[in-house]
Amino acid sequence: MARPYWSGKIQISLVSFGVKLFVATEAASDIHFHQIDRRTGERVRHQNVASSAIERNPDEAADPVHKSDIVKGYEYSHGRYITIEPDELAHLRIPSKRTMDVAQFVDIDSIDPAFFEKPYFVVPEDDSQAEAFLTIRQALIDTGKIALSRIAFGGREHVIAIAPAPAPLSEKSAKPTKSSKPAKSKSTKSDAAAPLGLMAYTLRYAAELRDPTAYFESIKHHAINADSLSLAKELIQRKTAAFDPTQFTDGYEAAVKELVDAKLKHAPIPREEPAPRTRGKVIHLMDALRKSVNDTKSTDTKTSAAKATDTAKSASRKGPTLIKSTSHSASKSHPSRVAKPTRTSPKRKTA
């Protein structure tokens, strides 16, 4: 397991327990570029040098400044700085460096997705902290709430949302049966399908989000045609599917790999195909929606036919199956073919 990115405690009134945060994301790209001198093919490296050395002799290589001699500086006026030592920053008086003090709880869906920034895994510091950790986690699940707090790392203090770790996507995408409806858990036992952890999401400050009015106010209102709206809804329904993140890959990275492979093999360089000319033809919205819906219908038909063919092939591989006799059922379905019993007159008694 990787080293924790942050260690401290979560404080809720008089309740506190130790936790560790781990970064929940990682760079998955295999393509990394370096800066190369076009003339020599050598890698270009950058060094930290004093600006005065470059100003005095711009054509000569300046002596690099050693890493231990570099400190942070705050420019309080043009060209004038106050230097800040690393030790001074390390001892700033910020309570959230060690403690996430929960300020309030909010509904899960009350936060605009634009505020969410980066996810982290939250686990108990050790087994002695697990009871309080799991109790608060279950309470968040049962109430449908998330906790809001502050945390300081990475050179700033962040607003952070703490929520129960969600169930795996395979569990979410599973369709519930008709006899059971999804409902909020009221049991004190943890859901076995979901991991026993918490997630922490750093949030953007309100001042970091631009006012959308400046961008949306230029959109003029238009009357929406009812038929077009109906077709748009049908199109959305036909293209609706469970979210599977593995179906989405980085197309840009794939194109770069193709370019690199072509250069290594001295093959023709793949290039973007020119967009087809529309010749000034204006496509009506209704026609475009209707054609899109019809295209999805034909795609669904082909998919269903392919599935039926696969099912038939798999059935043929299983070999012949025994067919039960239908003589009994035939006799029931055709009563006229069954011989009727003859009536016999009762025998008379003799004296």
Which labels suit this protein?
351 residues, alpha+beta, 8-stranded mixed β-sheet, two-stranded antiparallel ribbon, 9 helices, 10 strands
Q: How would you explain this protein's 3D organization?
A:
This protein is an alpha+beta fold and 351 residues long. It has a domain at 6-25 and 96-169 and 185-213: Ku70, Chain: A, Domain 2 (Beta Barrel), CATH 2.40.290.10. Helix content is 29%, strand content 19%. Strands 5-1-2-7-10-9-8-6 form an 8-stranded mixed beta sheet. Strand 3 and strand 4 (80-84) form a beta hairpin. Helix 6 (226-238) runs parallel beside helix 8 (285-317). It is extended. Mean pLDDT is 82; it is low at 173-190 and 319-342.
Poorly predicted runs of 5 or more residues: 173-190, 319-342
User: Biggest sheet: strands, sense, closure?
Assistant: 8 strands, mixed
Mean pLDDT: 82
- Please list the strands of the largest sheet in the order they lie side by side: 5-1-2-7-10-9-8-6
Number of helical regions: 9
Q: Helix and strand succession?
A: EEHEEHEEEHEEHEHHHHH
Q: Report the end-to-end length measured between terminal Cα atoms.
A: 109 Å
Secondary structure tally: strands: 10
CATH architecture of one domain: Beta Barrel
Shape: extended
Helix fraction, binned, reads 25-40%
Query: What fraction strand?
Result: 15-25%
C-alpha Rg (nearest Å) = 35 Å
Q: What top-tier CATH class of one domain fits best?
A: Mainly Beta
The CATH topology annotation of one domain reads as: Ku70, Chain: A, Domain 2
Structural class: alpha+beta
